[in-house]
Amino acid sequence: MPARFITAKELHELQIADKSLVVLDVRHLVGQARMRDQYETGHIPGAIYVEMRDELAGPASPGRGGRNPLPKPETLQANLRLWGISANSSVVIYSGLGQSAAGRAWWVLTWAGIRGVRMLAGGYEAWVEAGLPVSKETPIPSPSEIVIHPGQLPDVTLSEVPWHAQRGQLVDVRPRVDFDLGHIPGAVNVPYTELSDSRGFPVAPGLLQSLFAGQGVDLKKTIALTCGGGVAAAWSAAILDAIGIPTALHAGSWSEWIDSTTMNPQ
Predict the structure, then answer these.
(1) Given Cys at both, which of 134, 147, 178, 200 links 42, Cβ 3.0 to 4.6 Å?
(2) Which of 227, 231, 233, 242 is catalytic?
(3) What is the domain partition of the chain in residue ranges?
(4) What is the DSSP string of 137-201?
(5) Residues 146-155: tens digit of each pLDDT
(6) From edge to edge, which strands make up the β-sheet containing 90-94?
(7) Counting runs of H as helices and runs of E as strands, what totals does the chain give?
(8) Cα(208)–Cα(49) distance, rounded to whole angstroms?
(9) How many Cβ atoms sit within 10 Å of the Cβ of residue 14?
(10) Is 205 helix (H, G, I), strand (E, B) or coil?
(11) Measured in whole angstroms, how far is the alpha carbon of residue 172 from the centre of its chain?
């Protein structure tokens, strides 16, 4: 299992052994209603519900970072304090099977300087399938005084996107059908759904490497990742980071690109 991931069994053992553990539930589906109701129906004991659109992204507005811009550092820091995350915390994040929101949470927290963040392989479904306990209780964490240091992961601004494309290092991870309907000029396509198996576990490193190399991408150079709104690309960054392939995230992704071309037609 890559170091950025943890199995359900390992997480259960960690809950017993590590009193500093903070578990975040970030279940999220693009275009769907907020998923707090699913959290309240059942979640991993002690997990704190995090709404991806409200707490792992800033407010969307024309010309500002696409559908899910990065959160303002002061807002993110305030949220981390409310969740009880301190400099010494162990943090594990989970979303649902087939969802990529855990990757977005991993990227944002790591970008902010939180060390050692891990994701639950297989998501919430893996926990349930393992026969582990679920809860309907909402925990009340003890607030922390953490100070974040944003910029610990590289992000790609809109103006930098063409440079990565010209180098052949811009990868759009949306499904092929979305990519074919329109994409940033020069981007190549490696669908994020191919980076994990049907159980939500990352595929073997050799297969990961071949997927990108097969599109002419140089695995020794930074791969700029884009998608629709900066969520699936963050998930892809987490998987590649786990096997030592350097990446940078275009958080605004296609939603920012198409917005900019609409506002500033050539």
Answers:
(1) 134
(2) 227
(3) 5-129, 158-263
(4) ----PPP--------SS-B--GGGHHHHHHTT-EEE-S-HHHHHH---TT-EE--GGGGB-TTSP
(5) 999 999 999 9
(6) 5-6, 118-120, 90-94, 21-25, 48-49
(7) 11, 9
(8) 31
(9) 16
(10) helix
(11) 15
Active site residue 227: yes
CATH class (in words) of the domain with range 158-263: alpha beta
**Helix or strand holding residue 78 (H, E):** helix 73-82
Give the max Cα distance, the chain. Answer: 58
The burial class, CB within 10 Å (0-12 / 13-18 / 19+), for 37 is exposed
CA distances for 164 relative to 29, 149, 199, 250, angstroms:
29, 26, 32, 10
Q: Quote the CA–CA distance of 204 and 165 in Å, as a whole number.
A: 27
Rg (CA), the chain: 18
Residue 212 CB-half CA count within 13 A: 29
Tokens of 247: 């990446």
pLDDT tens sequence across 204-252? 999 999 999 999 999 999 999 999 999 999 999 999 998 999 999 999 9
CATH class, range 5-129? alpha beta
Amino acid found at 222: T
